[in-house]
Description:
Elements: H1 4-20, E1 23-30, E2 35-36, E3 41-46, E4 52-58, E5 64-68, E6 75-81, E7 84-90, E8 96-101, E9 104-105, E10 111-123, E11 126-137, E12 144-145, E13 151-154, E14 160-167, E15 174-175, E16 179-180, E17 186-189, E18 196-207, E19 211-214, E20 222-230, E21 234-237, E22 244-247, E23 254-262, E24 270-273, E25 290-291, H2 315-321, H3 327-340, H4 371-391, H5 397-422
Parallel strand pairs: 1-8, 9-12, 10-20
Antiparallel strand pairs: 1-2, 1-5, 3-4, 3-6, 6-7, 10-11, 11-18, 13-17, 14-15, 14-18, 16-17, 19-24, 20-23, 21-24, 22-23, 22-25
Helix pairs in contact: 4-5
Amino acid sequence: xxxxxxxxxxxxxxxxxxxxxxxxxxxxxxxxxxxxxxxxxxxxxxxxxxxxxxxxxxxxxxxxxxxxxxxxxxxxxxxxxxxxxxxxxxxxxxxxxxxxxxxxxxxxxxxxxxxxxxxxxxxxxxxxxxxxxxxxxxxxxxxxxxxxxxxxxxxxxxxxxxxxxxxxxxxxxxxxxxxxxxxxxxxxxxxxxxxxxxxxxxxxxxxxxxxxxxxxxxxxxxxxxxxxxxxxxxxxxxxxxxxxxxxxxxxxxxxxxxxxxxxxxxxxxxxxxxxxxxxxxxxxxxxxxxxxxxxxxxxxxxxxxxxxxxxxxxxxxxxxxxxxxxxxxxxxxxxxxxxxxxxxxxxxxxxxxxxxxxxxxxxxxxxxxxxxxxxxxxxxxxxxxxxxxxxxxxxxxxxxxxxxxxxxxxxxxxxxxxxxxxxxxx
Length: 426
């Protein structure tokens, strides 16, 4: 009979093997065809190790896959379908995931710009602006649109980009650099337009002498084109431009001008003059905008500060725009504040082949969470954002290494505390 000491030693020796034998199973479904996405590459990324690849496989004939977990901590499941990536978060303890993918086409019917919002502030000799697009892909059957100029837009002459973001349906905002096109002041987001809502937002600044003419040069028609600025500034529509003044009870210190159901080539030019900044908004539940007056939401008191929850605009907007133009602006606000605190820099020159699209849907949280779980969620999101910024060259290597080390240490401690909390009391 083996002694208890030998049995304990054997168990201790097997523990690492048992831990390394943990797996995540999953299914990949092609929602365009409602069939299994057989043969799609499935990649396991470890968020504890700097978005390093921790495993790779392919979906089988039924769309199923199995990935071995060799380390604890949060992971990210990436599925590559027809050149476009789709992601699903796998927090600690996840044993199975489901990933939906869509067939890809260079041009998809059923895509419409539901809102094109331009927000301005002015201080001194600088005009700061933010342009936001909400784009709906209602293709049927659902398909993803992707090409080398997937979503194009213009910025005012002389504008320099400070910060830009994109957010896919059901995801969270990420940094995404628009690519300059051959034509001056024209840019393109090389970012998939997946089925559902996709939002793009660009913060910029340009020289200002107290008055400027703006021609949006809209490439697409939109359900609502919105201009927002402080009431201390003046708005003047251009010849033939039809705008309606609106009131937003959430921020009575702002002017909001709206043109609805616009078409390509329709006059939308306007001029702004004066100086002023937008203060933080009040109660977001104060009500929907109403005609005659103006308002919007700002987050930063400096020119070019982030865009807060944009106006729902006229009554037709209320039924579907509130949830689209809310939280995304708040996220970019923080980024714009950070960027504008540093020296201004023009947008880097990227080729289409240099752009890596990383878009992560928000993981579904359990109905009840404790403090450790909330901390883990926050740390995972911060780690992911740090890796994206590092890959896109937004931060220096030394700053990345310092931040990464601190986050890794904090995450490791949080995981240990979570493990202790989950252990039964002896």
